[in-house]
Amino acid sequence: MYDYAIVGSGVAGCTLAKELSGKKIVIEKGEKPKYVGEGKNVLVNYVVGLGGSAVFSVGNAIKLKIKGYKIEKDIYDEIFEELNIKEADNTFLNDIDKEFLNFGFKKTPKFIDFEKCNKCGKCASKICNAKWTPLNFLKQSDADIITNFNIIKIEKEKEYFIIYCKNKKIKAKNIVLSAGAINSARILKSLYDYEEIGKNLFVDTFITVGGILKDSYLNEDVPMLVYKDYDDFILATHYSSLLYKEIKKEHKDIRSKDIVGLMIKIKDEMEGKVLKNNIKKEISKEDLKLLVRGISKATKYINKLGVEEIYSTIPRGSHPSGTLSFIKDFMFEDIYVCDSSLFKEPLGKPPVVSIIALAKKLSRELS
Ligand SMILES: Cc1cc2nc3c(=O)[nH]c(=O)nc-3n(C[C@H](O)[C@H](O)[C@H](O)COP(=O)(O)OP(=O)(O)OC[C@H]3O[C@@H](n4cnc5c(N)ncnc54)[C@H](O)[C@@H]3O)c2cc1C
Predict the structure, then answer these.
(1) CB 266 within 8 A of CB 331
(2) Which of 37, 161, 211, 293 is most exposed, with minimal Cβ within 10 Å?
(3) CA 237, CA 106: separation in Å to the nearest integer?
(4) How confident is the model at residue 30 (pLDDT cuts 50, 70, 90)?
(5) Does ligand 1 have an atom closer than 6 angstroms to the CB of 354?
(6) Which residue's CA lies nearest to atom 37 of ligand 1?
(7) Nearest residue (CA) to ligand 1, atom 2
(8) What is the mean pLDDT of the chain?
(9) Which ligand 1 atom is at minimum distance from the Cα of 27?
(10) 87 secondary structure, DSSP code
């Protein structure tokens, strides 16, 4: 019998696996990390597998105010130390980054060891030893781990839960759902018929705009190494292979080293919804206004570099959040929840530091 069954091995799940006291098991649906895309109007990407989405993060580490949760200062101190969060030295920046610094951009704090980073530009598709991932925390934890465990049913006995997959069952006194905002909502919905579950989805919708700038080599840079914060949206340097493909349709001989781009990431409205097998996420009127403002600012900077024609990607989102924002104090009925589903207001900025902070706070409260 376990004290805690932690469902999901992503940012929150791995932090809990490391910090909760008692006998623990991490139950992971996947194994080798694989991208999943859901949604038609805004394509929402996340990762299923050991470590969850942050195995392919680009290392952005921003401290944010988390509405509804008071996070003690020493929790953030711990996170910044454990993840070795730093900005890059000027010697690490390439010429494009420096141009953007001249335009008033700032260096992005990162959980990347720049001395180990070989600037392959593949943070979003490769795991390497320069970047912190949740797997680092999993290695430091004494939790049992079970992968390829597809939950088909959860039953409550008097003193404990039984979690079933096709040919196994696990008993635990407590369950913590950390399957990410989309899948924690689905699991909770399968247990309770409560209307609010799965509503209020936001994803920090983003697009990348850019064009051709010969030998700019942004494809060999750490993504989003410099950024500018406009509060409701940010701009950050971003080489996007989607943008490259879009430009290549008209410029057959163009090479990836010749593409320059800026990501516009907005605080989108919490109007999406998680359904049983899909999600509904559109661009609201307010979202559109922010995207247009962002595109206009980004275009101005890119034009200053000498780029004339501007191209754009489709809208995407890689920070699904908010779907269990009605929950107070980490608990609904008798199930704990701890992941990005808990955020009560749109962030528009990287959430990993905040998710770790929530998981550390819950671990302290339960210890
Ligand atoms: C390409 C990319 C780059 C990103 N870069 C950054 C960045 O630089 N900085 C930043 O702050 N954020 C970044 N993010 C966002 C960040 O990774 C996520 O917001 C964060 O990982 C969410 O944490 P979580 O614990 O809520 O869920 P996740 O980390 O996604 O973990 C959920 C886990 O649950 C598992 N799971 C799902 N369903 C089930 C089930 N039914 N049973 C058991 N297990 C299940 C999944 O396999 C996964 O392991 C990025 C995201 C992407 C996709």
Answers:
(1) no
(2) 37
(3) 11
(4) very high
(5) no
(6) 179
(7) 57
(8) 97
(9) 43
(10) P
| 154 Cβ inside 6 Å of ligand 1 | no
pLDDT number for residue 198: 98
Query: What dihedral angle (degrees, nearest 10) is formed by the CA atoms of 15, 17, 18, 21?
Result: 120
Q: What domains does the chain contain, in order, with CATH numbers? A: 2-83+126-198+320-366 (3.50.50.60), 93-108+201-317 (no CATH)
> How far apart are the C-alpha atoms of 345 and 204, rounded to whole Å?
11
| Cβ of 238 less than 6 Å from ligand 1 | no
What tens digit of pLDDT does each residue of 151-184 get? 999 999 989 999 999 889 999 999 999 999 999 9
Which ligand 1 atom is the nearest neighbour of the CA of 49? 47
- Cα(213)–Cα(251) distance, rounded to whole angstroms? 13
Confidence of residue 299 (pLDDT cuts 50, 70, 90): very high
The response to whether residue 340 sits with its C-beta less than 6 Å from ligand 1 reads yes
| Residue 184: exposure state from Cβ atoms within 10 A (0-12, 13-18, ≥19) | buried
Say how many Å lie between the CA of residue 91 and the centre of ligand 1: 31
The closest alpha carbon to 179, from 171, 187, 170, belongs to 187
Distance 348 CA to ligand 1 centre (A): 16
The pTM of the full predicted model, rounded to 2 decimals, is 0.98
Instruction: Report the atom number in ligand 1 closest to the C-alpha of 59.
Output: 8
